[in-house]
Amino acid sequence: MHPAGPAAAVIATLWWVLLIGATLIFLFVAGLFAWAWRRPAGPANVRRYVIGLGLAFPLTVLAALLAYGLVVGERLLPRAAPDVVSVTAEARQWAWRFGYDDAPGRETQGILHIPAGRPVDVAITTVDVVHSFWVPRLAGKLDAVPGHVNTLRIEAFAPGRYAGVSAEFSGPGYRAHRFEVIAHDAQGWQAFLTGETP
Amino acid sequence: MNALRRHRALTRIWASDPGWKGWFTTVNHTDLGRMFLATAAFFFVVGGILAMLIRAQLATPRSAFLGPEHYNQIFTMHGTIMMFLFAIPFFEGLAVYLLPKLLGTRDLAFPRLTAYGFWCYVFGGAMMIFALLAGIAPDSGWFMYPPLSSTLGAPGINPDFWLIGITFVEISAISAAVEITVTVLRYRAPGMRLSQMPIFAWYALVTAVMILTGFPPLILGSILLELERAFGMPFFQVAAGGDALLWQHLFWLFGHPEVYIIFLPAAGAISTILPVMARTRLMGYGWIVAAAVSLAVLSFGLWVHHMFTTGIPHMGLAFFSAASTLVAVPTAVQIFAWIGTLATGSPRLHLPMLWLLAFFATFVIGGLTGVMVAIVPFDWQVHDTYFIVAHLHYVLVGGFVFPMLAALYYWMPHFTGRRTYFKLGTTAFWLVFTGFHGTFLLLHWAGLLGMRRRIDSFEPGQGWELINLIASVSGFVMAIGFALVLVDVVVNAMVAIRGSRDPWGAGTLEWAMPTPSAAYNFASLPQVSSRDPLYDTPDLPAQLARGEGYLGDPARNRRETLAIDVASAEPRQIVVFPGNTLLPIWMAAITGLFFLGMLLKTYWLVPISAVGVITCALIWVWSLGRRRPEGRLPVGRGLSLATAAEAADPPGWWGSLFLLLADGTFFGALLFGYAFLWTVAPNWPPPAYAEPGPALLLLVALGAGLALAGPRAGHWVVAVGSLLLGAAGIAALFLVPDPSAHAYDATVWVLVGYGLLHHAVCLLMIAVVAARRRAGHSAATTRGAERVSHLWSRYTALTSLVIAAAVGLPGALT
User: Fold this and answer.
1) Chain A: nearest CA to B434, how far in angstroms?
2) Between B284, B321, B455, which is nearest A46 by CB?
3) Which residues cross the membrane (chain B) (predicted)?
4) pLDDT in tens, A59-83
5) Cα(B483)–Cα(B681) distance, rounded to whole angstroms?
6) pLDDT at residue A1, as a whole number
7) Which CATH class is domain A85-193?
8) A36/B343 touch (CB, cutoff 8 Å), yes or no
9) Which is nearest to B276 in space by CA: B441, B127, B414?
10) First CA to last CA distance, chain A
């Protein structure tokens, strides 16, 4: 819960909204329950409980929530932009290989280099079983499915090192199926692309 | 005849064999219900022990207690056992025990099928336990994603245990579901209209229909994956036109309805128990029925929410996200109707109510986190982390285990006929409740901190140590609580003092009998005119014992009950049930050999055991009905009815109808898989399509025409049609000789195989009907069997046409 990129930050905000909303609803239901328990026996208005609380209340809350989720989701999609960097990620049991559109032929094992402050599209696939690409502090996760290429948009606010993991169970080596993302400043990124020591 | 002599006569007719032999020959729903519940409880203990091993391993970072090989088997089997060998069978057991008593009848629709399902469950479960003890249990996760679960990721026998063992166990789910559906529709007490059923029967009906439509995609997926593993038919291998995503769709097409298959029976128990505990009646009966039905319908529209991270387009996700959040609405209707029920009454804090309180606290939290993960971007972050682990345990333990414990304590006086005497239950409750929240509440946070599911240990320094230690300690507290519940139940069942007949003051029919219940349930069947018959007629139990209802005279000396008209609830037929028999357990054992042959790849065993199963089935069917019609027989209260064997729509016809519903869903899932591969899988089209010539098409048209000519044309015409269609199917296989070449070829084989299997079944049925006529059965007593046979023939002919189109059209069009 220490977001270091726009996608993770938006999702973190979403989480706090969800947590506060859920807590309020829980307290409301618990309070209503306590009130119903203590209320002396007697007839009650069915429509108030079933239609008011059962139908109208959740429909209102959920409509608002869905709209919010949809807007957030749209913002996280990999849309075309002038400064997008494209990289590839290929998973296998239990390693990651990364390639770079801006430096054809350049490959790295276990470490993904990206420029900080620029959107990066990661084209994810796998050569064996299903895996999932996840850098928790930068963005959500996306699966690597055999025969398919899925594209995930990530971005780091600042240069640094970020831990990444595979997040789909893949057998005995699953725990250690990690990688690392190194976000460079503009100068470092150029140096990396031209083949100097990363 | 006085009440005591009637009791003795009926007991002699209905009782299971005495002693241990009775366990194997019984077909009585009371006994089988108890056996189901006890077996499911045993598997709950096994699953619980596995959970404790998991928590022991994760208590501290870098634990050396278990390596990944063992850990992977343990978490896979924990999920598998809890889902397939505990939750579903526990519902089945409760329904098997309760439904006839709630509905006011003497047994379930097909008593031998109950026994057959139970033994399939026991033998299939034993296979899984053997795998666990031998250290060769499945280890690919309970949802078995290929390619990890296929030959590529798991060349050993481990996944075969899952695919074959669970499919074997699912026979019990399907047979219980058919039975529950027919029982609820046709075996209610006379006069009990659908709108007057006890609410639990509604939930059981909805759940049963969901099982019939939810399980077939899983069974299909398991068969396809096993075919891929055993014979190289590449349904899930991308290089040969398969797609790993197909499994995920089929699995979750089952997997999400499964969650509601588990929750709805629990909700049924809550809707039954809560009003009694609050000394009032259920608020909004019609609304609750509508909510249960809409939950069932909606639950089939949101399987994709388990696949938000698989790269499906965002607008597609938005649809499923909306459906996923929408499912909270009928749930909310039920929750607030229950709160409203509490408000109208004055609740008592007995042990069942205490467990219901635990349900409310836990399930509401689980529901709220469920809405959270239905929001796509949030799911992208927490998918496959401990947030999901925590969420699903809140939903399943809160939404199933706690209400089932309420049900256990509520119906315990009924099971045992004794009063709860020892007070261990309250202590056990607090241990379980606090232990549960101690285990799972903080695990939400571990998930947000990035802790993935299914890792066999973790590194220190990520802020997870304290959370996991607290979770492990609390987990053991919860386990001690569950052990105490077990001790409490056993002790109270053995030594507590006799209790009164209706200890809670409930109004439903199961309390209108002495407890523990007699083998025949009701000495005579009641005429019902409201939802709470015992509130209207407090004297009803005595009236029934005096034989003032239907079928109070045991003079015909056989097991009899009534079948009613579905809508009007007027009594229509006398059903004569079979007596104790070893046939179901034999048939289940031979079915087990069939599955064992496939598991061990000793394929000579497969056809031999198939013949064995068919033989058992023939003996089974042959023993039904009498040669000569009996005409109308008196059933009491001035009414006379014919037996079901002489009716045009016997219960067996209804059973076939609902079995065909499951069968049709299976076929639909197969067509869905075909279309999915065609449109989504990367390596399509295949190198070559099957191109049936005009002769083959003519054969199909002729065969279908004859098979559909139906009853008027006579049996032999239908049989010839079936034979022609079968021949066309075999000819079609020669057009695609190698099923391992491409997923298309493999699919054609499965489609044609499906058709051939059905034609074989239809021909057998026609042969049985013809043989019965030859053996001297009258037209009246074979009428029902004939209609069953026609139903299957017509279904098979129609699906054959669809299969022919699916196989032939691509080649004809290109």
Assistant:
1) 17
2) B284
3) 35-54, 74-98, 118-137, 161-187, 199-225, 259-278, 285-305, 317-342, 354-376, 388-412, 424-446, 466-491, 602-622, 657-681, 693-709, 716-736, 748-771, 792-813
4) 999 999 989 988 888 888 888 888 8
5) 49
6) 63
7) mainly beta
8) yes
9) B414
10) 28
The interface residues of chain B toward chain A in range 374-393, judged by CB-CB distance below 8 A, are 375-381, 383-385
The SS3 call for residue B274 is helix
Cβ-based contacts of A153 with chain B (< 8 Å) = none
Q: Which of A66, A143, A148 sits opposite B322 (nearest CB)?
A: A66
**Chain segment B285-344, per-residue pLDDT in tens:** 999 999 999 999 999 888 888 888 888 887 788 888 888 888 899 999 999 999 999 999
| CB spacing of B311 vs A148 below 8 angstroms | yes
Do the Cβ atoms of A37 and B311 come within 8 Å? no
ipTM entry: 0.95
| Top-tier CATH class for B27-57+66-495 | mainly alpha
Distance, CA of B380 to CA of B373 (rounded, Å)? 9
Residues of B with Cβ-Cβ distance to A15 under 8 angstroms: 372, 378, 381, 448
Minimum CA–CA partner of A134 in chain B: B381
Q: What are phi and psi of A196, to 5 degrees?
A: -75, 170
Instruction: Give the burial string for B660-694 (b: 16+ CB within 10 Å, else e).
Output: bbbbbbbbebbebbbeebbeebebeebeebbebee
Query: Model-level pTM?
Result: 0.96
Pairwise CB contact (< 8 Å): A172 & B68: yes
| Residue in this structure with the two tokens 């490959």, named with its chain if needed | A107
Write down the domain spans for chain A: 6-75, 85-193
How close is the nearest chain B Cα to the Cα of A103, in Å? 26
Domain borders along chain B are 27-57+66-495, 685-813
- Inter-chain touch B328–A58, beta carbons under 8 Å: yes
Q: Which two tokens stand for residue B190?
A: 């006379």
Per-position DSSP letters for B580-645, written without gaps between them: --SHHHHHHHHHHHHHHHHHTT-TTHHHHHHHHHHHHHHHHHHTSS-SS----EEEETTEEEEEGG
Contact status, residue A164 vs residue A122, Cβ threshold 8 Å: no
Distance, CA of B364 to CA of B722 (rounded, Å): 54
CB-neighbour burial class of residue A79 (10 A; exposed 0-12, middle 13-18, buried 19+)? exposed
CB contact under 8 A, B340 and A39: no
pLDDT digits (tens, 9 = 90+) for B117-154: 999 999 999 999 999 999 999 999 999 999 999 988 88
Rounded Cα–Cα distance for residues A197 and B84 (Å): 54
Tokens of B178: 């058919």
Q: Which residues of A touch B287 (CB under 8 A)?
A: 46, 50, 54
Hey, are the CB atoms on A41 and B344 less than 8 Å from each other? yes
- Chain B residues whose CB is inside 8 A of the A128 CB are 147, 152-153
